[in-house]
Amino acid sequence: MNSFNIKELENLSGIKAHTIRMWEQRYSFLKPRRTTTNIRYYSNEELKAILNIALLNKYGFKISRIDRMQPEEIRSRILALGDPSAVQDRIINELVQEMADIDIERFEKTLSGYIGSKGIERAVNQIIFPFLEKIGILWLTGHINPAQEHLVTNVIRQKLIAAIEGTISPTQAKKSFMLFLPEGEHHELGLLYVYYLLKIRGISVIYLGANVPIKDMVYVHNLKKPDVIVVHLTSTASGFNFERFLNSAAEKLKGTPLVVSGRLTIDYKKNIPQSVYFKKSLQEVVEYISNIK
User: Fold this and answer.
1) Which CATH number, 3.50.50.60, 3.40.50.280, 3.40.50.720, 2.120.10.30, labels domain 169-290?
2) pTM given for the model
3) What are the 10-residue block averages of pLDDT along the chain, 293 residues in total?
4) CA 242 – CA 245 distance, rounded (Å)
5) Which fold is adopted by the domain 97-166?
6) 43-55: burial string, b at 16+ Cβ within 10 Å, e else
């Protein structure tokens, strides 16, 4: 991805489009080019600039002052921000910039550094999922090259798998969980995180992975008889019918609780089958798992 329109810049920076236009008129740090039809577009360098400027502005620096700073001073000021939230915002911005540049070596180094200092669970809550939410709308609308998505998600996936494999819990809960994603859903980072949260609490997990037909899930369910089944939906295929999936799964699972989380649960207004439970945020998922006995 080498250029961004103003809406994409808004999504990535958190700065409203009308504010970006006003900054362009008053200050010198943004100089967008225009298409033959007079539509603004911004380079990777301008994305980096506005991410840095937005961060300093959020933590107390006036735009007029930032406009007078040299790039080296902006960078040093950002690194000097000591507020924990500012540090998290800086790391997320760095990941966005490294993704835009397809600098996977630096992306992996940035992520590994935070995981090494804070641990995988805090890294996921404070860095990985906020980063994914920030760029998620671009994925859903096709404004990020698939190669960029695959590269960064594979790095994150490797980190989660390493954390799962390296987890040894001294306690063992009595319940067992089965995790899967339905056909057409290939984004398994959320589900892998659920796997990690369950494993560190000593809970037995049957992990089926992504793009699993309901009939195959039901076959394993009937064979292994898990106590709970978990699905986390991020970006389903265009023909995916959420209502049909819920009703079919609930019918075939014959009362086994089905916990569903992810984007589709937030705006769903129809009746939910009796054995299906929605968790509408990452925090709700974490709280649910924390209360398992």
Assistant:
1) 3.40.50.280
2) 0.81
3) 79 88 86 81 86 93 92 93 93 91 93 94 89 72 72 93 85 84 90 92 93 96 96 84 94 95 89 94 87 83
4) 5
5) 1.10.1240
6) eeebbbbbbbbbb
